[in-house]
Amino acid sequence: MPTKIRFGAFVREITVQQDRISYNNITPKIWRDAEGNEIPYRAPRIRLRPIDAYRLIKPYVSVRFLEQVRAVVPLAIYLMLFQWLILQQEILDAGIITAGLVAVIIGLMLFMEGLKVGLMPFGETLGIILPAKAHLNVVLLIAFLLGIGVTFAEPAIGALKAAGQIVRVESAPYLYALLNDWSEVLVLGVGLGVGMAAVLGTLRFLYGWSLKPLIYLTLLPTLGLTIYLTTVPELHKTLGLAWDCGAVTTGPVTVPLVLSLGIGIAAAAGKGQSSLSGFGIVTLASLFPIIGVQLLAIYLSFATTPEAIIAGAEHSAAVITPPAWYAQTPWTEIITGLRAIVPLVLFLFLVMRVLLKERFKHPGNIVYGITLTVLGMIVFNLGLTYGLSKLGAQSGSLVPASFMDIAAVQNDPLFTLALGLAIAIAFAWILGFGATLAEPALNALGLTVQNLTNGAFPKQLLIYAVSLGVGFGLALGVAKIVFEFSLAWLLIPGYALAILLTIFSTEEYVNIAWDSAGVTTGPVTVPLVLAMGLGFGNAMHAIEGFGILAMASIGPILSVLSTGLWIQWKVRRKHRRYDESMHLSETEEAPA
């Protein structure tokens, strides 16, 4: 029971150890010059001992460090335990992988902090100032170029480029060419798609367009090109890469920068007050890059032949030349980090100073943030090479030993065919479910959705709906590699069902569901799942291991749309029962 005390006694007790200090004693004296003018006071620089600086920085750093630890460590522990306990295999290069994972954590911590301090203010400032000082056409051009620039700065793009080393040129010439000889053009094609999405998303913010028609109009060419690619055997092998590129783009750089620009423009135009402001651009940034890569693959088929690609690869392999210094670790990671961030920063700087003639507020903070971003990207790239990609590829390559013979494992298959297949698919499901639960961006989306729907769609329900969708998506992606059926057999019916559910859903749930797919593909999940899928496919001698990320994108769309329809039905039923009870009470109260 709480104890009651008199207020006077409370005041007496808390003032026993207090000393009263005059305000005049803690303010500097006023000094005047010979003419009697007041000399402005300049406070001396604060000098901190190392222990004082440590105590100030420790809480700040530990929170951001633990955020990345929660995203990386559970997945790494799961993969390692699965390999030890289920597959009964040792972790190769465990020390290197551990060091790589630590580098991923530190790199992401620095990168995300630098992004908030250095790059995000650029997007917000541009969004506010651009509409006031430039024509709409110039605004859209800046949004388009920004969409291209942020694509090169995405951390997961490095994982996409690294995937080219696993593809065998004899099995999939066009896929090999896209990931090796045309890797920069591939990223540019993805960037053009993101740029188009930024333009369309900005126009949507300005004019308040519904997302539904945009989804239908975007999916029409996407699925049409998918059907065409399935009719050409060599192009069919690029289908998984094209759809996976849609998942790679919606990362921690693209979404915040493009979104802040679009919302800022809409707010400056007086049209940013809608509760749906901000939704939809992630969806468009996922779909347009798919079209870009599909068109690039078709162009490549007209520009060269599979025989020419194979001959060129064999010639390159025959001519053994030591790699240049810039193609070796750690120089390649350093150069990649600089190329990803510096051009984007220079572009934003030129727009601000030359086009808008604006001065930067707190330039020291911006320089500090950009330095952290570059440093974080470099450290993350090193961790990606030696940690995430190595661990994912190793785990993925060993999972098929549960149901088939592979060269890397003795006494395989480890289980019967049915049990081994069940273990492999369950491995992918748990990985997808757990990785999504650990995604920090999903928690933020859940709070937004809960507020947007006035509690009808609770945060935890959204988190579990998205996680279940990703889990089943990854399981279907692994099944596609195991049973070697076409990815189109999953994508076309899946998106047809998504369109059907979209037609019957309200605008709020359509925005939530289609954007939830982009939230699940973070800088940790994408490299890990990509490396796992490619390692899995390589162990099974599959032509390619792409497509798992594509299934991880369609899964949450279907699960959230279905959950939204169920919530809509519950709300309508509740309203109907309330109306019936009110009508019944009015009938009973009516005079005879």
Automatic annotation (TrEMBL):
<feature type="transmembrane region" description="Helical">
    <location>
        <begin position="65"/>
        <end position="85"/>
    </location>
</feature>
<feature type="transmembrane region" description="Helical">
    <location>
        <begin position="251"/>
        <end position="269"/>
    </location>
</feature>
<feature type="transmembrane region" description="Helical">
    <location>
        <begin position="134"/>
        <end position="153"/>
    </location>
</feature>
<feature type="transmembrane region" description="Helical">
    <location>
        <begin position="214"/>
        <end position="231"/>
    </location>
</feature>
<feature type="transmembrane region" description="Helical">
    <location>
        <begin position="461"/>
        <end position="481"/>
    </location>
</feature>
<keyword id="KW-1133">Transmembrane helix</keyword>
<feature type="transmembrane region" description="Helical">
    <location>
        <begin position="517"/>
        <end position="540"/>
    </location>
</feature>
<dbReference type="Pfam" id="PF07556">
    <property type="entry name" value="DUF1538"/>
</dbReference>
<feature type="transmembrane region" description="Helical">
    <location>
        <begin position="546"/>
        <end position="567"/>
    </location>
</feature>
<dbReference type="InterPro" id="IPR011435">
    <property type="entry name" value="UmpAB"/>
</dbReference>
<keyword id="KW-0472">Membrane</keyword>
<feature type="transmembrane region" description="Helical">
    <location>
        <begin position="281"/>
        <end position="302"/>
    </location>
</feature>
<feature type="transmembrane region" description="Helical">
    <location>
        <begin position="487"/>
        <end position="505"/>
    </location>
</feature>
<protein>
    <submittedName>
        <fullName>DUF1538 domain-containing protein</fullName>
    </submittedName>
</protein>
<feature type="transmembrane region" description="Helical">
    <location>
        <begin position="367"/>
        <end position="388"/>
    </location>
</feature>
<feature type="transmembrane region" description="Helical">
    <location>
        <begin position="334"/>
        <end position="355"/>
    </location>
</feature>
<keyword id="KW-0812">Transmembrane</keyword>
<feature type="transmembrane region" description="Helical">
    <location>
        <begin position="91"/>
        <end position="113"/>
    </location>
</feature>
<feature type="transmembrane region" description="Helical">
    <location>
        <begin position="414"/>
        <end position="438"/>
    </location>
</feature>
<feature type="transmembrane region" description="Helical">
    <location>
        <begin position="185"/>
        <end position="207"/>
    </location>
</feature>
